[in-house]
Structure formats: structure tokens, C-alpha cells
Amino acid sequence: MSEKHLRKGSKFPQKENGQLRLYSTKYCPYAQRVRIVLALKDIPYETVNLHCFDKPEWMYDLNPAGLVPIFDTGTELLTESLKICNYLEKAFPKPSLPLNERDATLLAEFDALLALFYKVANNPDLGDFLQLLKHVEKYEGELSKRGKYFGGEEPRMIDFMIWPWAERAAMFDKLFPEHLPAPDALHNLRAWCARMRQHPTLLQLRTNVESQIEIYDLVRAGKHKEIDFDI
């Protein structure tokens, strides 16, 4: 379907009845969550990419909030990444990607932290960044109790839901080069990242961090509509 990101004025791409369709933005980590689960479960679907700063008018008919991901199951439209991933787990139970109550609690705390992540990314402030690092220490401690992954000895749903932001954290190296954790700090998280980075599905769906940095540079400069998500 549409690899090129559709903008304002674009016509709605018609679809066949019953076809699974993901409305996405290439560099959106929330949409990446859904793409990861779809790939892990080998579910056939089509993608329609949308420019999140120059949105087609009909996007608001799909989701009044004007946000991706949006998933068309063929019978209903689902929004919000976790709701979509939970639907996929129930509708396509193999391979199983369980999310137990303990994992769900940690994931809810992680999602609440993302507001600070974006505050730092969009308006870099050292105080905010240091506050973010303090929160990161909690996840270092969680891994010390859980094993190689947040899901234990094998990656589970929670690992794949956290990964898109862990992958993007490399952009802070450019923003705060003098204030990064010491090389011997956060060793559990560093080892987790190294393992996740080599996962076959995540290798296939990896994000170009340099392109992500360029996008945030344009956002901070107020040049949202100049962003080319097709790079």
C-alpha cells in the first residue's frame, strides 16, 4: 500500500473488505509497537503512512484525535498502541506474547514517563534530562530482579513495548554529551539493549536514529511541515 506518507489533500486509499490495515508514520514509536507485534506474529496486513504534521483531512474520520497508530481490523477501527497490541494478542494468540499484571503495571508507569521523554527531546533542558535519568534507574533495578529481559529469560510483550524508546534514546548522546551515564553504569539496561538490538524482528524494523535526530532538529526549529518521513 502507501509507503509514501500521505499529506493534506491526499485522497483516501480504498481498501478491500476484511483487509487488515495499519495507518502509521514511519518514525512513530507507538506505531512501531504495532508493527513489531504484527511482524512477530507474521500477520499479513497493509500499511498506509500518514504525515503526522500535515495530516490528510480524512484522518480525523478514522481517529478524531488525529493520531497514529490506527488499526482497521476489517470490522472496526482501533486506536492507541497498547489496545491494538492487546487485540492482536487475543485475535492471533500464536506465538504468545503474554503481559501479566506485574508487567502491565510496569508498562503503565513507563508510558506515564514518556511525557518527560518528549519534553526533553522537544525542548532540551539539562534538569529535565537528569530527572529522566533518575527514572531510568528504576528499570535498571527491575532488570536486576527479572533476568535478561523484562519478561524474564526471553523477551515478552513488555520488552517489545518499551523497545522503540530505548532505541531512540541514542539521540540524547548528541543533546547531552557531557552528562551521559558513566560507561560502567546501567549495565543491565545496556546488556538488555544489546540483546534486543540483535533480535531478528527488531533488526528488520530498526529505526534510523540519525534520521530521527534530523526530524527532532526540525521540530525544535518549528519546521514541522518540512519533515520528510520518507527518508
Short description:
By secondary structure, the chain is an alpha/beta fold. The protein contains 10 helices and 5 strands; from the N terminus they run E-E-H-E-H-E-E-H-H-H-H-H-H-H-H.
Structural class: alpha/beta
Radius of gyration: 18 Å
**How many individual β-strands?**
5
Strand order of the largest sheet: 1-3-2-4-5
CATH-defined fold name of the largest domain: Glutathione S-transferase Yfyf (Class Pi), Chain A, domain 2
Number of helices: 10
- Total separate domains: 2
Beta-strand portion reads 5-15%
What series of H and E elements makes up the topology? EEHEHEEHHHHHHHH
**CATH class of the largest domain, please?**
Mainly Alpha
Whole-number average pLDDT?
94
Largest sheet: 5 strands, mixed
- Unreliable parts: none
- Tell me the overall shape: globular
Helix content range: 40-55%
Oligomeric state as shown: single chain
- Any guess at the CATH architecture of the largest domain? Up-down Bundle
Distance between the termini: 17 Å
Overview of this protein structure:
With 231 residues, this protein is an alpha/beta fold. It folds into two domains: 95 residues, Glutaredoxin (3-Layer(aba) Sandwich), CATH 3.40.30; 98 residues, Glutathione S-transferase Yfyf (Class Pi), Chain A, domain 2, CATH 1.20.1050.10. Helices cover 50% and strands 9% of the residues. It is built from ten helices and five strands. The protein has a five-stranded mixed β-sheet with strand order 1-3-2-4-5, covered by helices on one side. The model has no long low-confidence stretch (mean pLDDT 94).
